[in-house]
Design goal:
Pfam family, one: ROK
Structural class: alpha/beta
Strand content: 15-25%
Keywords: Transferase
Family: Belongs to the ROK (NagC/XylR) family.
Number of domains: 2
Organism: Streptomyces rishiriensis
CATH class of the largest domain: Alpha Beta
Enzyme class: transferase
């Protein structure tokens, strides 16, 4: 476990818990009286199975609840997998052995109401609320590639509640096959695995994402080429969104997206090259919550319930702050 920051206090009537269930890690934050009293990141064990991972999640939740000193009012969960109405995992390409398993079961002992939301959608919510932007696109790059859309101050969730899957916009029909089965999805081109593979081919040496980030920081030519490749692909996806939803702001985050500091500027330059006369382009910048936008969104879900996900105006005078 990493990133421990516990500060135990007595249970409070307004205590809530935020949990981000990601592809490579869990992140947990307990909040009481509006302040974080506990925060921890837990890495999924290498080679683990769904049973052991479920036990790890249950133990991590119990520890966070203990830091509150009592049952939270509500738990908000930002989930990378697609979770059904009964709390079971419908699909999770990065951890297929979870399919059919209950993601709600590890929370059963918390004594709290548990609400699930798509991790990238919640990240978009958090970015919009923190920046005051009524028209925003969030793009999270990590194990996978996720997206969240806010338009006119409202989350765009679609007919089935999962709109904003930017990682599955096709940016290269002849490109690598995505885990979803489609060829050339943005996720297949700029996820952590895809960029490590591109850097490996460009450099001629096996290259991890950590080495890619270090290479970008040093402006090494091979790393610059991989960064340009990512920026080109992201700009192609955003070009579609500019015409469809006209965002005023684009925020790039996620574990890898936040680590590649020059990426938003590169994307902005490539997007500007495609501008139509008289049509403004969005401001492209880093996510204000860095790698933790999904966790911040889960905290909002825990604090305010599903009202923020139901198409309500996020900035209405009466909405919670």
């Amino acid at each position: 476990m990493t990133g421990t920051r516990p500060r135990t206090r007595p249970g409070t009537a307004d205590g809530v818990l935020a949990v981000d269930v990601g592809g490579t890690k869990l992140a947990l934050r307990a909040v009481a009286a509006g302040a974080a009293v506990y925060e921890r990141t837990v890495l999924w064990p290498v080679g683990g199975d769904a049973g052991g991972e479920s036990e790890l999640l249950e133990a991590s939740v119990a520890e966070a609840v203990g830091a509150l000193g009592g049952a939270p009012v509500r738990i908000g969960v930002a989930a990378a997998p697609n979770v059904g109405a009964d709390g079971s995992v419908v699909s999770w390409p990065n951890r297929p052995d979870w399919v059919g398993r209950s993601l709600s079961a590890p929370f059963a002992g918390s004594g709290a109401e548990v609400l699930f939301g798509d991790d990238a959608t919640l990240a978009g919510l958090a970015e919009a609320r923190s920046t005051g932007s009524r028209d925003l696109v969030y793009l999270g790059i990590g194990t996978g590639v996720g997206g969240g859309l806010v338009s006119g101050g409202r989350l765009l969730t679609g007919a089935w509640g999962t709109a904003g899957e930017l990682g599955h916009l096709v940016v290269d029909p002849q490109g690598p096959r995505c885990r979803c089965g489609t060829r050339g999805c943005l996720q297949a081109v700029v996820s952590a695995e895809a960029l490590a593979a591109h850097a490996t081919a460009t450099r001629g040496l096996p290259t991890t994402t950590a080495e890619l980030v270090a290479g970008v920081d040093r402006a090494e030519p091979w790393a610059e080429r991989t960064l340009d490749h990512a920026a080109d692909s992201i700009a192609r996806a955003l070009r579609v969104l500019v015409e469809l939803v006209q965002p005023a702001h684009v925020r790039i985050g996620g574990g890898l997206g936040a680590a590649l500091a020059p990426l938003p500027r590169r994307v902005a330059r490539r997007l500007s090259a495609t501008a139509r006369p008289g049509r403004p382009l969005p401001e492209v910048g880093p996510a204000v919550h860095g790698a933790h936008s999904s966790l911040a969104g889960a905290a909002l879900l825990a604090a305010h319930g599903t009202s923020l996900l139901g198409g309500a105006d996020l900035f209405h005078e009466g909405s919670p702050s």
